[in-house]
Amino acid sequence: MTKDQKVNKTEETVIKFILEGLEKGELVWQKTWNGSTGILPINHKTKTAYNGLNCYLSWVALERGYKHNEWLTWNQIANMKGLTKVGSGKFFHLEDKDGNTVKGEKMIKKDEKPCPVEYWKLNHRLRETGKYFTDKDYKQALKDGTHVRADFQSWWSLANVYYVYNVEQSTLPLPKVRKAKKFKDTGAEKIVEEVFKGYKNAPDFSSMDTDRACYIPSLDAIRVPTPEQFKSKHNGTGGNHYAHTCFHEATHSTGHETRLSREGVTNLAMFDEHKKRYANEELIAEMGACMMMAYHNLDTSETINNSQAYIKGWLSRLSDDKSLIPVAIRQSNSAVRHILGI
């Protein structure tokens, strides 16, 4: 990364996490993990899922051996323990309901380090006057009919970076550990069928007697070898290889102009003109495939080596611009959510 490129703490953490894993010859997001809370990180208090780059929290849970993939801020921990924050800025302390001062170690286990997460904010500005609207006021203006969408310029911006702890790092009572599901080693073809059935505005999908898998933007079509071809090539694990390949191409398809409109898909001359950006699109597709495999609890132990080599090869084309890694993760997360409708 060049000295002129700025990253927030979340990006910095994720880049380091991935590069260290690749140096060790492993992809942490594709290790077989069957945590009882599921592959999507959720906020322990609100029960909402983290998205975008914040999905890396699942990898942290995997790496640290947590049984729970639930996270919360320091303030949320204090709130759930019935504590009140007295004072402001750096000069504050916590009090219980009886007014007694409570020390930090009563909330967080000793020497436990938090993880940074991004919070993005949607901004709106009137094109004519330049007046800024909050998202709430923007929606109200549309509802009241005083303005239409075309009157506004809207964009996302990074509002803040917060720090969260896994629930196991806190002194809160732990949730009941649900029995983890066994990894699926059969039924991958059925899962792929269900995924495409639920994929809104899905591309044309078919498996045929071919030696390569691809997504064709001009036709908005996915073509992959037949399940039988995968089975003959990967004895006993062909189903999972078939699913991984289908998920890779499905992730590519979300870049179509009628869906998420990514330049790596909409610009058909991308490979020759911008190999670095095309490499980014391949990272998005492979990361998306890994996330989809984990989401559907499909065993990735037989597909890890292929993904490691594939991603490492494309990463080498990014030169010093490692800032594209967080971009790829955010976009792959958006792609997976688009496919699954979540």
**Strand segment tally:** 11
Number of helices: 12
Computed Rg: 22 Å
Order of helices and strands: HEHEHEEEEEHEHEEEHHHHHHH
Question: Which class of secondary structure composition applies to the elements?
Answer: alpha+beta
β content, as a range?
15-25%
Choose one word for the global shape. Answer: globular
First CA to last CA: what distance?
A: 33 Å
Mean pLDDT: 84
Biggest sheet architecture:
5 strands, mixed
Q: Ranges with pLDDT <50 over ≥5 residues?
A: 1-5
| Widest sheet, order of strands | 1-2-8-6-7
Give the proportion of residues in helices. Answer: 25-40%
Short précis:
The chain is of the alpha+beta class and 342 residues long. It contains twelve helices and eleven strands.
What is this structure's SSE topology?
Layout: H1 9-23, E1 42-43, H2 57-64, E2 70-73, H3 74-80, E3 84-88, E4 91-95, E5 101-102, E6 115-126, E7 132-133, H4 135-144, E8 152-166, H5 188-198, E9 204-208, E10 214-216, E11 221-225, H6 227-233, H7 238-253, H8 263-266, H9 270-273, H10 275-295, H11 304-315, H12 324-340
Describe the structure.
It is globular, with a radius of gyration of 22 Å. It is 39% helix and 18% strand. It starts with 8 loop residues before the first helix and ends with a helix. The longest helix has 21 residues, at 275-295. The strands form three sheets. A five-stranded mixed beta sheet has the order 1-2-8-6-7. Strands 3-4-5 form a three-stranded antiparallel beta sheet, covered by helices on one side. The protein has a three-stranded mixed beta sheet with strand order 9-11-10. β4 and β5 form a beta hairpin. It contains twelve helices and eleven strands. It is α+β, with helices and mostly antiparallel strands and 342 residues long. Mean pLDDT is 84; it is low at 1-5. α5 (188-198) packs parallel to α7 (238-253).
